[in-house]
Amino acid sequence: MSGFDSNPFADPVDVNPFQDASITQATSGATESVGEYNPFSSPEMGALSGTTIPISSAASQPAVLQTSVEQSAQASAAAGQANLIRQQEELERKAAELERKEQELQSRGGGRTSTGEKENNWPPLPRILPVKPCFYQDFEEEIPEEYRRICKRMYYLWMFHTATLFLNILACLAYFTASAPHGVDFGLSILWFILFTPVSFICWYRPVYKAFRSDSSFSFFFFFFVFFFQVTVYVIQSVGIPSWGNSGWIAAISMIGTNLAVAVVMMVVAGFFTVNAILAVILLKMVHSKYRRTGASFTKAQQEFSSGVLSNRTVQTATANAVSSAAQGAFSRNQGI
Asked: Residue 209's CB: how many other CB atoms inside 10 A?
């Protein structure tokens, strides 16, 4: 019962666990061994010898890295010199390229007027003719590279449109020779060729060319407005309503029973009109996608139209003349009264 005689509520006896005899002996032995060990002593003298080497007696010298430092400095200097040579070669190459472009511009700019303005080069007419070119056109110089392909395609569409109108004259001529009452179609086909060839160039090709050249919102909107009607005209021409001057499908099919050769010729032209309509729709979508990337808007188009009208010398002169005439008329009426 001796185990129950102790008071469990009494303060415990302070016992230091580190005062145990086995722990004290182990720690004192480790301390002595560590103190006796000299890691800087030579192996011949023994790892646990009690003798130590004074610091003053050790032959201490700073680490010498002169060779590696000199080599790294030389390598850096060589790399810098190579970089300078490469930059100099790049500058010389760019200078040569700029000089070449300047020479090309000068050679192409040989067609400039005495005032320094660009000389018109379209249509490319012989110099012996009294009629001179009316427009200046250069895709490489005036049209940015991202719009150059679509602009050329619009130009090719206009050329295909002109060739189709010319073939339409020949088909309507065959139509007239096979059936005399259809002479009106032959006459109208000549009129359409003479009228639509320059009008199409001025009203929808030149606006889209100017739009891509100067990122003009007004030119874009004008092109969309006119080209929509051009697509409608292509559809009407491909249909071929009789007595409208178009060798379309209806007129061609009506000639199958009368003259098969003439019908085949008219069908070929009708196919050309159909291809014109399809290409026009495709290019209209492509131009619209390019237009959306340019940031053009109807507000910008209004501003460009207003600034263009107000800065036009012809409009300014006409407005000034109208105002002066009205003022003079009002002044004369007042004097008569």
From this structure: 22
